[in-house]
Amino acid sequence: MTAVRTVVLSAALLLVALTPVHAREPATAGLTPDEVDKINRGEVVVKTRVYSIADGKRAVTIKGYCVINKPPDAAWAVMLDYEKFHEFMPRLSKVKVLEKTKDTMKVTETVSMPVGTLTHTLDLKFYPTQGRVAWTLDKSRKHDIADTSGTWEFLPYRRGGTVVRYTSTVDSGMIVPKFLEEQLISYDLPGVLSSIRRRTESDGTWTKEQSPAAEVSGAPDKALSAP
């Protein structure tokens, strides 16, 4: 009997070890009940935190949430097609894939911002079993921002849907007032999340040319009805 209990306990511990971290918390973790209601209605929720770093400069941590009315696999397929992100992402004018393996990608992005055109290279790592993509800035190459890192997460949600959780930390390298830093960096996030939702729900066919106003609006799309 002792041997049986030992085997059962060992198996249970193994299952816990193999369980993805995000499976231990709800897809809406970090949101208030009101914010959950908003994403269920098709809105995008954005949270920002601006903080001071060296030399009077500021960095911003941004979090965004929305619901996609497709399963996580559909959103994941859009992420794997990263070289086409410029077709639907606001302000992203060019994506060049420099290196690509099964679970990694190095890409150079050209972004049109109010302050001018910015170029940087990102190292992306894909974690398919967790539904997560992480990125960091390749500082060995030309970069017009001081630093950035972040994640995309695609979490199973009710009725075959997906909660998208986007987290990014950005140091623009600029000495600007707090309100302007936040505005410059977080301005497009509702449009970013709305755009990946449109791309996913259209099975990878929607482009920003079809609806330019959607690039920055973040307006509600199809709402996920309450249970």
Please provide a written account of the structure.
The protein is of the alpha+beta class and 227 residues long. It has one domain: Alpha-D-Glucose-1,6-Bisphosphate, Chain A, domain 4, CATH 3.30.530.20. 26% of the residues lie in helices and 34% in strands. The chain has 6 helices and 8 strands; from the N terminus they run ααββαββββββααα. It has helices spanning 2-18, 33-40, 72-80, 178-186, 189-201, 214-217; strands at 45-52, 58-68, 92-100, 104-113, 116-127, 132-137, 147-157, 161-171. It has an 8-stranded antiparallel β-sheet with strand order 1-2-8-7-6-5-4-3. α3 (72-80) crosses α5. It is globular and about 45 Å long. The N and C termini lie far apart (45 Å). The relative contact order is 0.19. Mean pLDDT is 80; it is low at 1-23, 213-218 and 222-227.
Secondary structure: elements and pairs:
Layout lengths: L1 H17 L14 H8 L4 E8 L5 E11 L3 H9 L11 E9 L3 E10 L2 E12 L4 E6 L9 E11 L3 E11 L6 H9 L2 H13 L12 H4 L10
Antiparallel strand pairs: 1-2, 2-8, 3-4, 4-5, 5-6, 6-7, 7-8
Helix pairs in contact: 3-5
Could you name the key traits of this structure?
227 residues, Alpha-D-Glucose-1,6-Bisphosphate, Chain A, domain 4, single chain, eight-stranded antiparallel sheet, alpha+beta
